[in-house]
Amino acid sequence: MKSVDCSHVPESLDAPTPSSDGCTNCVALGRSDWVHLRLCQECGNVGCCDSSPLRHATAHFHDARHPLMRSFERREDWWWCYVEEVMFLVDGAPAAPSHSDQARILQDVQ
Ligand SMILES: [Zn+2]
Ligand SMILES: [Zn+2]
Ligand SMILES: [Zn+2]
After folding, report:
1. How far is the CA of 40 from the centre of ligand 3 (A)?
2. At a CB cut-off of 8 Å and minimum separation 6, what does 28 contact?
């Protein structure tokens, strides 16, 4: 495995089960105006990225202190560490799940 500048990569690279198909916190607030979604590698919390109005993925790091997240976008398998602030790829990691296109559509019609 290629070495990465992050000391938090777990032994098990399996992706956790996503908590939701959209940003968990935005959905709880009745919102669907996130830009992109991020998946917490430790607990599976789905949060919205820093380009989104409420930045719940970063908020989750501050609340839960879970340092690693992965993109929850289709065809993106990069990881991000909030502690070292590095983006990297992990060789051999199984593909992360991604949200369906339904998430926001369903929210919009509700
Ligand atoms: Zn790290
Ligand atoms: Zn959000
Ligand atoms: Zn977490």
Report:
1. 5
2. none
Instruction: DSSP for 31-68, please give it.
Output: ----S-EEEETTT--EEE-TTSSS-HHHHHHHHH---E
Structure tokens of 66?
């879970």
Bridge partners of 86? Answer: 81
Residues flanking ion ligand 1, Cβ below 5 Å: 6, 8, 81, 83-84
Please list the pLDDT of the chain residue by residue as tens digits (110 residues): 456 789 999 988 999 999 999 999 999 999 999 999 999 999 999 999 999 999 999 999 999 999 999 999 999 999 999 999 999 999 888 888 899 876 565 555 44
- Domains, the chain, ranges and CATH? 24-109 (3.30.40.10)
CA atoms of 6 and 20, how far apart (whole Å)? 27
The answer to whether the predicted template modeling score (pTM) of the entire model surpasses 0.85 is yes
